[in-house]
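User: Okay, second chain of the day. Same drill as before: sequence in, structure tokens out.
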Amino acid sequence: MKKILAILLILFVAGCKHYENFTTYFNTYYNAQRLMKESEDEFEYQDTKLKAQPKVVFPDEYLQPVEMTTSGPPPFMQEFIISPLKLQPVKTKLDSIIIKGSKILSRKSKSNYVEGSIYLMAKSYFYKNEWLPSQIKCSELIDKFPEGDLSPDAHLLYAKNLLIQRKFYSGKLLLSRTIDIAWQKERYDILSEAFRLQAELALYENDVKGAVKPYKQAIAQSDNNFYRSNWQFDLASIYYRLGDWQNALENFQKVRKYSPDYLTLYSSYYYEALCLIRLGKYDQAEEILKKLDEDQKYQEWKAYTHSGFMLSALLKGDSASFRKLEIKADSAFKVSPPLLIVYYEKGLIEYNKGNYLEARKYFARARNLRTPVYASADKMYNLLNNWEQKIKFAQPLLSKYEKGEELTDTSRMFLAGMLYELGANFERLGFMDSTIKYYKIACEVAPSFDTNSARYIYSYARVISDKNLYLSDSLKEVIVERYPLTEFGKEVLKELGYTSNYVIDTTYELMTSGLRLIKNNEIEFGLNQLKLLFNKYPTNKFAPRALYVIGHTYERKLFNYDSAFYYYKILIDSFPESIYAKDVKLAITYYLAVQSGQPIPDSLKERELPPRTPFGPVKGFEIPPPPQQSKIEKKEENKDGFNPLDYFKDPSKIIKDAKQIISPDDLVPNVNLPKNPLDEFKKKDSTNVPQPEPDVEKPKR
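Assistant: Same drill. Structure tokens below.
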């Protein structure tokens, strides 16, 4: 009987567990999975991953250097970040997944779907670009289910979160742990992604050995030929990116030693042909490309094969063949990454020949899709576009200057600015000869009073420092002599070792000198200093103050009102928003009204106030008088109270009044307590005590 009961109990418990899993899956977890699939389909995250397209690789040496950012996600992690535009339609679904996962964790914590719920929540936070909550959920999953089926996925997602936050050291550790758990669980898809991230991070940190090492170890350790072929292809791609064509060629050929799928097989042949083209073996490369073009199972990638023919014609220098292939590509294929890469390389060749307008056309075409060359193409296009605009503005004035024609100061300042920007543009493009040429002309054209000349001279001195250090130092001395107060002047002072006392602020010296002389009654000399300040530096920050002091001195000390009016008027006209102009504006307006002989407007008349008694109440705010007290009440009040000043006059009064101050009788002033308690036991006079009325029965009716 006991055995039967035990069996029934086991079946009952198992049934409860099965029922809990059943309700959890169909009530919550299934819906969460469905919402995640719909979300990924909405912003085409999975579709992008599942597209059967060959990998696009381009040599890094042909890319233009782009400014490295010290904040925000690194460039190789940008592909994992969902843009706000794609996130907006699915944000509600992702929030719903998080809510459903929270319900499972709180109400069905014993079910088998806790691990999956935590992972779905972590992915939802990741897609919402909330890296820290996603990181916390991944850590929670790893702690609770270290050997779970989703542990490799959680490790990889955790590493991505860290890398996006630029926590590279922690990211490396997590990638290493991801590889360990993926080997243990035989999750080769996770291994491939972890190896790729390790390689990208190593290349980002210029560690070539660190980039190829994981792939070599994986190929040697694994017995799965399918994944070995994929890793072999990734290893060859790294060599191709680094420009090591021979190593890349050998490793692309090794891919076919294993068991690649037909996409990897096609990619190995395609990049083998590109390596041969880079090595100058055009005939061998074209033979491979012809075989690929004729093979029907590779028809969906004909655009890639066609780009190989275009690259061969381009590097051979066969312009006619390239033009024919380009026309065919425009008509036969839609915009494709390999074609854009060829257009970018065509733009580089035209650029190096000096055909900037032709190069700009191809750089513009290479910007149509996000490819490895997108950032470089965009940079080159913008620089060449900027060059064309600046040269159009500068060319007419530059021609006049080269012919020796006279230019106004305004024209010279404008031309110098355009020439400087042209020089800076050529510097970013890498043409140092043109950079030096335009910087030099900008220094010669700019008027000496233009403080921007400090920037032109400094830039010219900087670019020639490697070739002519003596001239560079001489130009910096010119900056110190002419423009010591500018930003570049202060920088040069530090470079040349000058102290801060070297720079003398002339305007400050004139201002303080003038004020000191006027204060010491050397009025004539003081006014001359202030007038010199305004005449020589009319836009200086001390100019309005100098005019105000001159006018005030004429008005209050010399009583020369015409001169005072003259300088006040200049102050108001030149600096209407200064505090000094606002201070004298009303007085000058009144003075002009009086001088005109016309009736003075009401706004300038002195306001008349009704007479008021000094210290009297303001109308509407009168304080009612206090109630009158009789003299007897005042005397009584003074009698009962005490004056604190009496204790300063007679300190012994404190001791005398101590009994009265601390007497408990004062605490109950309205109660008359007997002085002798025994009086309570004395016989009282009954005659004075009122007798109660006797109770009288009322007659009954």
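Residues 406-500 form a domain with the Serine Threonine Protein Phosphatase 5, Tetratricopeptide repeat fold (CATH 1.25.40.10).

User: Thanks, on to the next one.
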